[in-house]
Amino acid sequence: MEDYTKNKLFREYLKALFNQAGIRAFFAIAVLIALGLTEGIGLLMLIPFLQLIGIGESTPTGIVATIGQVWAYTGLPLNLPAVLAVYAAIVSLYALIQRWSTILNSKLSHAFTRKLRDDLFRAMARVQWLRFIQIRGSDINHVMTSNLNTVDNGTYGLFALISSVFIVLVHIGIAMMLSFPLTCVAMVSSGILLLVLRPLNRRSYSLGEEWRQTMGALFGVLMEHLAGMKVAKSFGAEDRHIQSFCSLNGKLEQQANRFAGILSSTSMYYEIGGVVVLSVFFLVGVEVLQIAAATLLIMVFLFARLVPQFSWMQRTWQGILNMLPAYKAVLEMADKFHMAEEQPASGQVEPIDLRTGIEFRDVSFRYDKEDPNFILNNINLTLHALQTTVILGPSGGGKSTFADLLIGLLTPDLGQVLIDGEALEGNVLHSWRKSVGYVPQESLLFHETLQDNMRWASPDSSEEDIWEALRLAAAEDFVRALPEGLNTILGDRGVRLSGGQRQRIALARALLRNPTLLLLDEATSNLDSENEQRIFQALQQLRGTMTVVFISHRPSAVQCADQVVVIEGGRVSPRTTRTTYAQ
């Protein structure tokens, strides 16, 4: 993983932003330049206005004379209504360009954040399963939501900062045309103030890093409590979760207050420094340079506007520095995903029509590659096509790991898994995954209609296909009895259905794919005997029509088996049989 320093991180951020924005970024900058020039022209309009009210020079010189020549060239009369009309038109144009610039900047920042989020999700979806389960889900959630929202706000702030830079440059340019020496005095004074405030910038970045880490820990506590709330309540352990959450939330409050202190300190120093700079500016202009009254008034007006603009720019820059650790977290998570990315399929991928069977040949596997002990050790086994194989064994014996190897989520450390004699890798792996119907112990149901839940596995299936799959899974009768049938909203994780009904819907959804292999991994472990028998009856109807692997720790599962395999201690037990059970 790459080590990102602050300066390198900012360069990476700018490069990614402008690469993504493309020509639109330069167009946005052109709009910002137009914005600054328009405001500058509006400020120059103060000179003829001051002349009209009797404050101008009797004999115009320099820029004042130039403005007079431009005005005369337009043919407009030099009177108050004409000057006010032109000024109003320029201000209106400025407001129009500003609105356009704001919308464009918003679109660019949102587009950049969207691309980051899309790319991150795309990379996450392609991560190897073993590497994926080693990353905390709360860390992914934190990066995909909170960190990317922070990046979005920081990016918008960056474009606003660029806008302010152009406006400030125009102000300074006008000031130099009016009085170069006086402008230099003001700029040197402002530069000293910027140097004084540099430590606050460093604190902004480090505080952003602290905020990222604390927010990540907070997400971790939240996600863990949501996942284990039932257990926490049953143990009466709510107070421990509350204490952890509130402690981290208190740290976030402190960090937010510290950052607010940095921003308020910046404003305070600029207020005090601004008064000092303006006083020096006025004193030098009157006593030393003896600048004319009209010019001095415009110069004072310019720098009175520049001081708060400098203050806002400084605070915005601190916000961008505070954002960089969040962007760093996005890059680090993307690095993790890309380093663990699966090899994509080459060419078109079609499901496999299993002809002979699946062979585990000398297969060994371990999750921790530094551990000398294997979870599964030297597995030699053949699962014959169009037969039902029941995998039995105690909890912790390696059955679920066997299932993950069977469907290609895990890759053996030693040996091979063969599909009709071909190694389960490359395009064969991608084709095999299109051929599998998987029913896990905990059914995955969404807060959608029953019909939408079914079509999640097979989007192109017709309503007739859905009813046929429900019939095969012994779920047709209770679905027809639901108030809205297929259009019934199942609720979060299928809460409106019983456990047995959820599992039968999960089985029906797997069957809707018309799979080559139907894999049930402890799919009846949470069911009572009545609902378990319904699943068994459904499997009896499927015997001989597809290859079925039923993983269970219940001996009752053998009633639907053509072959029984016992896995104990990571090995195939000698008790394994190949008997076709009589019904």
Protein described:
The protein is an alpha/beta fold and 583 residues long. The protein has 2 domains: 17-339, ABC transporter type 1, transmembrane domain (ABC transporter transmembrane region fold, Up-down Bundle), CATH 1.20.1560.10; 357-572, Rossmann fold (3-Layer(aba) Sandwich), CATH 3.40.50. Helices cover 63% and strands 9% of the residues. It is built from 19 helices and 10 strands. The protein has helices at 6-21, 23-44, 46-52, 62-74, 80-125, 129-132, 137-178, 180-196, 198-227, 229-234, 238-288, 293-339, 399-406, 426-433, 450-455, 463-472, 476-480, 499-512, 529-542, and strands spanning 357-365, 376-384, 388-392, 414-419, 422-423, 436-439, 517-521, 547-551, 563-568, 571-572. The strands form 2 sheets. It has a 6-stranded mixed beta sheet with strand order 6-7-8-3-9-10, with helices on both faces. α8 runs antiparallel to α11 and α9 (198-227) runs parallel beside α12 (293-339). It is elongated, with a radius of gyration of 35 Å. The two termini are 58 Å apart.
